Amino acid sequence: MAQLEARELPLHKVFCSDYDFRIPDYQRPYAWQTEQAQQLLADLEEALLRGDGEPYFLGSLVLVKDSRAAEADVIDGQQRLTTLTILLAVMRDLAQQPDVVTNLVAMISEPGNTVLGLKAKPRLTLRPRDADFFHQHIQTSGSIKTLLELNPHNLRTDAQRAVQANARVLHTALSGWTDDQRLALCTLMGVQTFLVAVSTPDLDSAHRIFSVMNSRGLDLSPADIFKAQIIGEIDEQVSETYARRWEDAEESLGREEFSDLFMHIRMIFSGERARQELLKEFQAQVLTHYKGGRAKEFVDEVLVPYAEASAVIRDKTYAAGDGSPQVNLWFRRLLQLDNNDWWPAALWALRSHGDDPVWLGSFLRSLERLAASMFVRRIYTTPRVLRFAELLTELNKGLGLEAPAFQLTDDERTETLARLDGDVYYELRTRRFILLRLDELVAEDDIVTTYHAPRITVEHVLPQNPGPQSQWRADFTVDQRKEWTHRLANLVLLSRTKNSQVQNLDFTDKKERYLRRGVVAFPLTTQVLGQDTWTPEHLEKRQTELLGLLAEEWRL
């Protein structure tokens, strides 16, 4: 059996000559978005501001590594290692103190040691396609400035664009810090920030470890511990009945969603962003209200009603008379977002106004507007959660539909519009959501049919790479293609996978051989099929119309 080692390591022992990290070619590319990079920095900053000396854990690494050698293939942990390297590089190039620069350089790259037989080389080597780029623009001293000046459209891979985008947001944030603040962060990262490195010399064993570490439902969850505590306080005569009610609620949602429900309930009760683990905060912020023989009340008035409301949101099954279909349509729109931070507010509304579909419709319209704006602007987790926490605080004070947190500032509206008017195609997380919302707005029906296509993709009308003799090159100059290719007016929805052999056809052929066959009643795409030509003038008009629809819908 392969020997397994697990070590709890501060970062200065991770980024040292003990480890030569390599990302195998079979791993997926670097993919962390700016939201994750900003969240990492925000969490580190929060640990720094606490100043309590407590260790900050970043998670785990799974490595294929012989204990006698430094070479380590990274099976799990690539995203963290890469982003940490970017963060160290940004601080290196911002540092003013020579000794700090020297120390950060040594964490990013092995300087070499002839006596010890160590060659100069990077601590982390990315997949072959991106390794040279990462070495040149991140791991080389003074390279960040040049990296930020590169045109992202000219970068070869999505991973390279992600590296540049994350370097940019980290550089922007840290540029506003003083040298002393950045030095304090360096010290926190080097000494108080830990990773758990799990290593085995056997690849199959490493994959098994990775699978076990990432499997769900094996260990006790906080919900299991809360159950033991609550049911244990209920009289024996009825405890079995309440245990069954608890288990029915868990079964209706599934283990993962049921665990999430406790985080949502905590948020509703506290109106605050989580700062400690759920076990501590749920006790202090929720269960403390149900001491002294009130355990049954928690199950009857909190757990079961919120579990039922959660199932209504997930399944879009609200039914309370006229207006119910519109409420479910709002749930459908919200569920297309890539986060569930809005969920506690929706649960609060269902619990407080579940018998009033008209009020709920108005509430969810405002909630979707706020959530969509933050989604489009790629607001990362901490400020996003803080905004919803502020909203819940106002709702608990009785402000309802007039809650100030619902309102978008002038700057927020301007930035939302600017994002919508930009190269939307490159916004991988938001582009499908935006186009589906537009598809509803251009439809003639009041309630749009739910699409059951197995795959919905985003496609260009004017192709990214028209052939040398293509009519596209006659109709569009180079600058016009650069201006319009990736913007809203040139994008449509298809219910099929892309076909590289026909997606570059001229407009008439493309409509007949590609677009028409890929439509499942998408009104947005049907509009394109009704056009005889596709020109810069048409795109400009279409862009204005589509932006106008979104601006009106989201009151921008």
Description of the structure:
The mean pLDDT is 88. This protein has 556 residues and is of the alpha/beta class. It has helices at residues 11-14, 34-50, 78-94, 98-108, 128-137, 144-149, 158-175, 179-192, 203-214, 222-232, 236-253, 255-270, 278-285, 295-315, 324-335, 343-353, 357-376, 381-396, 410-420, 431-442, 471-475, 478-484, 507-515, 523-529, 536-553; strands at 5-10, 20-22, 56-65, 71-76, 109-110, 121-122, 124-125, 193-200, 457-460, 491-494. The chain contains 25 helices and 10 strands. The N and C termini lie far apart (62 Å). The strands form 3 sheets. A 6-stranded mixed beta sheet has the order 1-8-3-4-2-7, with helices on both faces. The chain has a two-stranded antiparallel sheet with strand order 5-6. 33% of the residues are buried. Helix 3 crosses helix 7 and helix 15 packs parallel to helix 17.
What topology emerges from the helices and strands here?
Elements: E1 5-10, H1 11-14, E2 20-22, H2 34-50, E3 56-65, E4 71-76, H3 78-94, H4 98-108, E5 109-110, E6 121-122, E7 124-125, H5 128-137, H6 144-149, H7 158-175, H8 179-192, E8 193-200, H9 203-214, H10 222-232, H11 236-253, H12 255-270, H13 278-285, H14 295-315, H15 324-335, H16 343-353, H17 357-376, H18 381-396, H19 410-420, H20 431-442, E9 457-460, H21 471-475, H22 478-484, E10 491-494, H23 507-515, H24 523-529, H25 536-553
Parallel strand pairs: 2-4, 2-7, 3-8
Antiparallel strand pairs: 1-8, 3-4, 5-6, 9-10
Main features:
10 strands; 56% helix; two-stranded antiparallel sheet; 6-stranded mixed sheet; 556 residues; globular; alpha/beta
